[in-house]
Amino acid sequence: MAQFEEVSQKSALHPKPAGLVLQYGTAGFRTNAKNLDHVMFRMGLLATLRSKNTKATIGVMVTASHNPEEDNGVKLIDPMGEMVAMVWEGYATQLANAEQDDLLPALKDIIKREAINMTQEANVFVGRDTRSSGACLSQAVLDGVSTLDGHSKDYGLVTTPQLHYMVCCQNTQGQYGEATVEGYYRKLSQAFIRLTKNVPNRTDDQKHLCVDGANGIGALKVREMERHLERELQISLFNDGSSGKLNHQCGADFVKVQQKAPTGVEMTVGERCCSFDGDADRIVYYYSSSAGRFHLLDGDKIATLISTFLKELLTQAGLDLKMAVVQTAYANGSSTQYLENTMKVIMKCTKTGVKHLHHAAQEFDIGVYFESNGHGTVLFSKTAEQKIKQLAEDSTSSDEKKRAALLLQNTINVINQTVGDSISDMLLIEAILAIKGMTVQQWDAIYSDLPNRQLKVRVSNPRVIDTTDAERRAVSPAGLQEAIDSLVKKYRQARSFVRPSGTEDVVRVYAEAETQESADALAHEVSLAVYRLAGGVGDEPKPLH
Ligand SMILES: CC(=O)N[C@H]1[C@@H](OP(=O)(O)O)O[C@H](CO)[C@@H](O)[C@@H]1O
Ligand SMILES: [Mg+2]
């Protein structure tokens, strides 16, 4: 077929460095931008196949999120705006790693396995973050799409969640919203204004927020959105990309991992601040106290704020909807304890990686999911949305019920349900704080985090560690879990687990305990156990103090 001849010819223009092997990991492909041209071309081919296969528009986002500027990467987006199905992650890896001469057979293999009708029309949406390599790399994606006669729309510079949103809007014939960046701003900001404008006595302080844009796409987009917010939210934007380097000493990942304020943000004592990551799908909040102490409000605190707010509204509305909070093993033990025991919320724990949380959240009427690092959103089932709508429109319901239903409706509209979204999460959090008349300090005081520590251990093959129970227990290598169990017993309120990272060639160690000293000591001791039992390389892990 002519299409296949095209593939042979065009792929020669996007040659694969021989021997290079990459894996479609937790967050798609990610590596130094120099090694990605062939991957992008091939993901253009694959997205086209996926589009033919689903008879829907597919998204391709060129980004490496919180990684350094020199890196880049690519993620595929499925029809409803969710991460691409697992089997297709496997196809992506196959296609990316096929040597030049094996590309066509690899492509034909996928076509055969999925019984793809090659005459079916295909549509692909492409977007990219602000990395300098992005323009060229997204052009390679577009080349791939046109090689298989797919149609494409290049959204240019957008945040990752904006592209997810566009894909979902397109495939729901506009039911979810209009598939344009302006449409996105309008939907979210109108909902935000409806939520906040009737809140009495909101002071300028309450309307003001410092945003660290990580010198990335989120900064550009928040600035574009600002004029839609009618000064209901007044943003001081830092790290807007005009001088600083992307993600360098700033952004949500830096703040969460380092547990300190980013550079480039002028914070005054007690002021509410937040950081986005490099592709604006994560957010964390923070402030500094008068004693100079840094206070982080991470994904767990965000999930707590949102789920508490929703639960109150459901009670006021008298709606019997099943709500759950989905976390991973990295969630601070205090958050799980508080939500489960004090708030009586249904709690779920899944493996690391948003696709796992997203799927678990879909099983409830309302599923709030957040990774500790600040990636998360809220999902509402069709039933939940319908019941809320009915109540809001019911002329016989009480004022209190109606008010709650209207708040719930606008809450649904401010949320980007396709994926975690810094901008949408920020608007939701700001609206909740406004409605509840809550300061960031009061939010922080809902529960106190248990001191914790995360470490990395290098071993020759991290995959020798196999886990179960949502990664909370190790089943191999032999003796490791027993070693962890006996170390944990030495400390109060302690918990620890280990797992191979899905994005780095390391084993991650997590420990929490009553004091920071205990958490640090436990993390170190567990690291030593991993080093000794799982084939550590290099020097033995050293104590932290
Ligand atoms: C402990 C941690 O923060 N892990 C991160 C990290 O995964 P690892 O598999 O732990 O490398 O990157 C993922 C993708 O961005 C993110 O979903 C996840 O939360
Ligand atoms: Mg990200």
Number of strands: 19
Distance between the termini: 66 Å
> Under the CATH scheme, which class of the largest domain?
Alpha Beta
Largest sheet: 5 strands, mixed
Separate helix tally: 19
CATH architectural type of the largest domain: 3-Layer(aba) Sandwich
Q: What is the H level of CATH, i.e. the homologous superfamily of the largest domain?
A: Alpha-D-Glucose-1,6-Bisphosphate, subunit A, domain 3
How many distinct folded domains? 4
CATH topology of the largest domain: Alpha-D-Glucose-1,6-Bisphosphate, Chain A, domain 3
Mean pLDDT equals 96
Task: Compute the CA-based radius of gyration.
Answer: 24 Å
Overall SS class? alpha/beta
Ligands in the model, by name, code or SMILES, are:
2-acetamido-2-deoxy-1-O-phosphono-alpha-D-glucopyranose, magnesium ion
What form results from the Cα inertia axes? globular
Helix content: 40-55%
Strand order of the largest sheet: 1-3-2-4-5
Uncertain runs are: none
Strand content: 15-25%
